[in-house]
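User: tokens in, sequence out, please.
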């Protein structure tokens, strides 16, 4: 084993990511709040409740203190449309001011904010008007974005328009586990086009209000391999699933055309070129096998790469080569890259140290190839409400007791702090937190 330190550039951003609904609590004026009340919608009947109490109790302050004390230099958060526009055309100045305090709170602690404008949740009034199935959402979203940009433009330059539009369309319109709970692939494709149009309108509005804005559309990227690379049908399902999930939105931003299943592509010319950076949310990889019995899965049965560590909920598997593959694929688009999310749901912190260190090594390789990767945001700072899995799936560097709201650092918080403070990955850190990785990460 070698003793060594892998350094990152001084300007590289080190942070964590959160989303409004998942941490703020009491987001009572939203479609997801109503959805939570439905029987069987959320694991174990959990509800978001006070979540991490960032909104009413202002506990973002103590969590931002933790991030700063741990040496983080950035944080990604999202603003909730329902708070800013609680009724159509009524703008809540106090809510905008609270978000202003939050981003200023980050700046005051030396952290660069990255602000997401839509993260899976809608105001109730919007859902009642047909939500993302009604094309009127595009001008409505643009109006909302203009209000946020005008309020935060002095403090925020890095923006994400719509988080993981590929996950949102599948969860809401194919798997039916997010509101509106539909299972209709063709409706999903129409929603995808609307999301893209809204993103494009937001992109232009942000640049008009703030010419220096850096705007992206974070994509949940899942590399996928054929189970038997020599079998043409396995290769076909792997490619089809990749094209219709990971590649869908980025390809459309390049071509102005959105692929569909069994139908001609939808024209979205206004989306062309509407990205300043690529946002990568990476968690897991898949292996796909052709299976004629599952047309709803596009004939592809997915499993995890053999031998990969699988997280608590059995939904994400650690597969570090997939992270490098994702960066390599994005590098071709010739734009700066931010890793806008990466993490694992692991309450006991059994896998997280390994899961953190192995992608960071891949990240260092990419940076050393001079690929323009500018920052890494770990998901997440604190445990938070994990959508249909409620509180059963915990991603925080800090554990949160939902009854007392007390935060407790997991060992990984110390690990990540060591990386952030030194802006480096050293054999010493690996020896301390995951000695089993020393020979792999620092051979010699
Ligand atoms: O918690 C989610 C987040 O809202 C979007 N990306 C994936 C995370 C973990 O599942």
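Assistant: Sequence out:
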């Amino acid at each position: 084993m070698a003793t060594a330190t892998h350094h990152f550039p001084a300007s590289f951003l080190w942070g964590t990511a959160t989303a409004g609904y998942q941490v703020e609590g009491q987001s009572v004026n939203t479609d997801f709040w109503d959805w939570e009340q439905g029987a069987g919608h959320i694991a174990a009947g959990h509800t978001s409740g006070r979540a991490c109490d960032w909104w009413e109790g202002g506990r973002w302050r103590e969590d931002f203190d933790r991030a700063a004390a741990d040496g983080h230099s950035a944080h990604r958060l999202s603003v909730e449309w329902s708070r800013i526009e609680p009724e159509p055309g009524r703008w809540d100045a106090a809510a905008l001011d609270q978000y202003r305090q939050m981003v200023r709170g980050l700046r005051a602690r030396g952290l660069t904010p990255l602000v997401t404008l839509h993260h899976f949740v809608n105001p109730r009034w919007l859902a009642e008007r047909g939500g993302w199935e009604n094309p009127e959402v595009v001008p409505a979203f643009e109006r909302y974005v203009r209000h946020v940009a005008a309020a935060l433009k002095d403090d925020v330059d890095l923006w994400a328009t719509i988080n993981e539009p590929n996950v949102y369309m599948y969860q809401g319109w194919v798997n039916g586990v997010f509101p509106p709970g539909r299972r209709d692939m063709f409706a999903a494709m129409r929603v995808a086009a609307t999301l893209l149009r809204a993103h494009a309108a937001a992109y232009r509005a942000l640049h008009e209000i703030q010419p220096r804005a850096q705007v992206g559309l974070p994509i949940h990227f899942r590399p996928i391999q054929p189970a038997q690379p020599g079998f043409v049908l396995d290769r076909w399902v792997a490619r089809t699933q990749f094209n219709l999930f990971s590649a869908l939105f980025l390809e459309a931003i390049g071509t102005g055309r959105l692929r569909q299943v069994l139908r001609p592509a939808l024209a979205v010319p206004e989306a062309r070129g509407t990205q300043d950076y690529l946002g990568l949310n990476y968690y897991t990889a898949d292996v796909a096998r052709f299976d004629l019995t599952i047309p709803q899965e596009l004939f592809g049965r997915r499993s995890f790469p053999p031998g990969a560590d699988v997280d608590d909920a059995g939904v994400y598997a650690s597969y570090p080569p997939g992270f490098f593959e994702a960066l390599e694929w994005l590098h071709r688009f010739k734009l700066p890259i931010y890793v806008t999310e990466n993490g694992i749901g692991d309450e006991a912190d059994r896998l997280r140290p390994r899961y953190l260190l192995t992608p960071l090594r891949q990240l260092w390789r990419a940076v050393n190839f001079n690929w323009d990767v500018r920052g890494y945001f770990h998901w997440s700072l604190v445990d938070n409400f994990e959508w249909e899995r409620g509180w059963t799936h915990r991603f925080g560097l800090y554990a949160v007791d939902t009854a007392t709201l007390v935060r407790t650092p997991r060992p990984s918080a110390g690990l990540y702090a060591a990386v952030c403070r030194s802006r480096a990955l050293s054999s010493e850190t690996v020896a301390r937190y995951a000695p089993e990785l020393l020979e792999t990460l620092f051979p010699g």
